[in-house]
Design goal:
Blueprint: H1 2-39, H2 47-69, H3 77-81, H4 84-119, E1 122-124, E2 128-130, H5 132-135, H6 137-157
Antiparallel strand pairs: 1-2
Helix pairs in contact: 1-2, 1-6, 2-6, 4-6
Length: about 170
């Protein structure tokens, strides 16, 4: 389990790096579009659309990495207020709920992607392409998020019965 967890950690870091490259590309594209529109009176009509898709992918690519690092969105003030054993139980419950939610999103995202492909649905804006191209990263990402919740739960079960080190950002 530890070897798989370490391999996934490297994969998550690679995806986070790819997300950073996407963010850089979004900034470069937006800057170029603004400069061209204001100087040459022409721009990239598809720039906003591509930026929207890149932002979506950036979010999905960084989700497992942020969860791994404990930097995902969480309400941790309650963990600082309860006894360590209760905080540990809350962490276990959160991991199990996160895993369940991830499995639902994998299932639903897979169904959406397959239906879109079966129906040959298209995304039609400035760019036209099969809709499933936008949909498949969702279940793929949540497979990785679900794996990380399994790893988190496994690490929690092997740790002392107290709150996680990354669990609280408040006093």
């Amino acid at each position: 389990m530890n070897r798989l967890s370490e391999s996934c950690e490297r994969l998550f870091a690679a995806f986070a790096f790819l997300a950073a490259l996407l963010l850089f590309a979004m900034v470069a594209l937006t800057t170029a579009d603004i400069i061209m529109r204001n100087t040459l009176r022409v721009g990239f009509p598809w720039a906003n659309e591509v930026t929207e898709y890149a932002l979506y992918l950036t979010t999905l690519l960084t989700a497992p990495w942020l969860l791994r690092r404990g930097q995902h969105v969480r309400i941790d003030m309650a963990l600082a207020l309860v006894p360590p054993r209760v905080a540990w139980l809350m962490e276990a419950a959160a991991d199990l709920l996160g895993l369940a939610a991830s499995l639902v999103l994998i299932w639903y995202g897979t169904i959406m992607t397959l239906q879109s492909a079966r129906l040959s649905s298209l995304t039609i804006k400035n760019l036209v392409f099969p809709e499933w191209w936008l949909l498949w990263p969702l279940p793929a990402c949540f497979v990785l998020v679900a794996l990380e919740f399994v790893f988190r739960f496994h690490r929690l079960m092997g740790a002392s019965r107290t709150r996680r080190l990354e669990a609280t950002s408040v006093g």
